[in-house]
Amino acid sequence: MFMLQPRSSWAQNRGDLLASGVEVIDDYHYSNAFSNNRNFRVFLPPSYRKDSEKRYPVIYFFHGWAQRYFGSMGSGYSNYDFGDDNDGDNIEKFVSENDVIIVKVDGLNQFKVEPINLSPYNVSLVSTFRQFPEYFKEFVGYIDAHYRTIPDRTHRGISGLSMGGFMTFWLSAKLPDWVSAAGNFCGSSEFSAGPLDFPVRYAHADMYDNFKAISMRMHNGNSDRLRFYHEDMNRYLMNAVPHYQFKQYEASHITCGMGDMFAFMMQAFKTPLPLPEKWDYIDIYPYFEVWDYKIETSRNRSGYTVLRDVIKDGFYLAVRNFLPDGELMPNVDVQVLTAPIYEINTEYRVTDIDLRTKGSKQYSVQSDASGRLKLALNGSEHQIGIGIAPSMANLSMTNFKIENLDWAESGKVVEFSMNVLNKGFAIAENVIAEISAVSEGLDIVSGQGKIKDLKPQEEEKVNGLFKVRNNRMGYDIAKFQVDFTDDSGASWQEEFEILFKDPVDKITNFVIADGKEFTIVKEAVDSVSMVVGVGNGDGIANPGETIVLLIEEGGKYLRTDAYTTNKYINSGNVSIRIADPWQNYDHIGGSVKYTMPVLDSETPEGEEIPFYVEYWTPGSISGQHIIHKGKVNVEVSGKDQTIPQVEWVQVLNDDLIEARVYDGASVTGVMLTFSPNEEKSTLKHVNWDETPPAFSIELKDDGQGGDAVKDDGVYSARISGKPTYFYDLSFEVRDSLGNKGKHQAGEPVFLKETRWR
What we know:
757 residues, 5 domains, 8 helices, 10% helix, 41% strand, disordered N terminus
């Protein structure tokens, strides 16, 4: 029997075996992921040394922000380990009474040579490339190899306090195929997370698709400073995740109800949720592995890869800049390596339907010796069908549209249409679509529709409208299931969601920001004078403008998150949503989101566009915030006189320049001038005999000459024969209506070695 000897002086002084029979081991191991030694603490139950054959489930515990695995970096933060400090509700007590191993993880991610950053686990803006999810998998492997664990996901759970609580939900969403239970004590509801160079403002409420196979529970205290943000998160998770539980205790920001939490996790080990036959998943990293699928993208900007309805017969994939309906990224390459679920060395037919362009193609792919398929896609919106000829039809819902209301409103009958796609290889005859309720409190008023025939690669609208009513109030994610059948007797099922909104009153104290300076509330308590929106600044919504709806309070203005289904808003793959973190208010909680709708140039004169808006105001105590909701009607008038806008620009592989350009009309010209920045180049020790000359190139969106995808709004060009140097960028842009002007990029770009190409 292998016995890991304690190495810390604490454990030696206290002794290996506590009076309760629990053995505590402090040790370290070398991590290849972090390239250093990592500390950990292990709690072994009394039976561990008595029964050398018995194996145990494992609960991993993550400490809080400024702590270490043994609690030495913060007073009072070892309360949850031993004794009476936490009223006896601690790890030792639970392990003494249950056959479980609990392991405390050290989340420190700080090298001596790096700037001080107390944020553990890489969940904030850290000065390192090291990522904790990779370390966790490595660490689990180490624990499984050196202790008698039950080494599978159904007997592995994670838990944590505060930042460790955030980590618990974040890691369980990132690695649902590694853990089966997650217990969150007082964790933040959102934080910056993800790749070092392009993190996202990550919110658990956005990631509920990842939790389908995870038993989840959250505890907080009635005086916890984060409790108000927990209420926001719970509103989503309680509706979207049926196996999510929440309990509040008479406590502050501590591990309240630790014994209850661990008991919940032990029950989850005994009755684990079934593995999903059809799974959904979202990831913020450009490459990842989940459920034995491997996804690699060329994305080098913040965003999300979305997978839905993944089964052997195919899947849905999209890459977006934010959830749920952010801009698609068709210029991003995507490589999908499937799990080994196919016949080996066999030819399969693939149907790839781009829902953005409505284009489709079919091709053959050979499975490898392990039964995997390798598919090459892009970051657009895809429905993928996979089969062997002769094969059957394969039906999937592509979208639905509300027909009788501006948006789905609780308490009212909502009528919506549905489109169905055949991504299979045979005709589907006499298709019947029938919906049923998954969430509670839903009435199906009219739940069936028909399509006569649906050919391969064909998309059709179901005849007739579906009618439903949500009887619950509160910002509510309502889940439905749709079943498709045809004359062959085949059937297909998938879930979809409708976001219901409560009835709201009209807001009259609003202004339209369209390129005018306002004093804007920022980060809850600060204010800043800045130009808001894009347009002529007259406060009237004109076609082609990018507007922000502002609410006036006390001489200051609050930006709003504005939602509409109007067809003249955000056409052409434009969707701008920005997070305003409230860290200056309470340093840790959440962020308010605001949107910048773009008005299509074809918006008719007098068109009245309804928006459902939300905005936040601080409450009377730290962490409290009031979410205001209402309806704003915006009348559009005038003509489009707004020039195209440049959202971002980047240099790839030293010789490819890309810029995201959008407009209410068609963009007809993008000319980019590179002006050498001698000062920046000198500071960075870029030596050249003389300052190189300025030069100009035309960027195009034609799918040629380095441009990845035609008509996706990303304009590109190859650069050659230019010296290594820093350059300032200025754009000359024009649209189909004759609007033209200039933009100056904020930061210079660095070109390297293009003179050799």
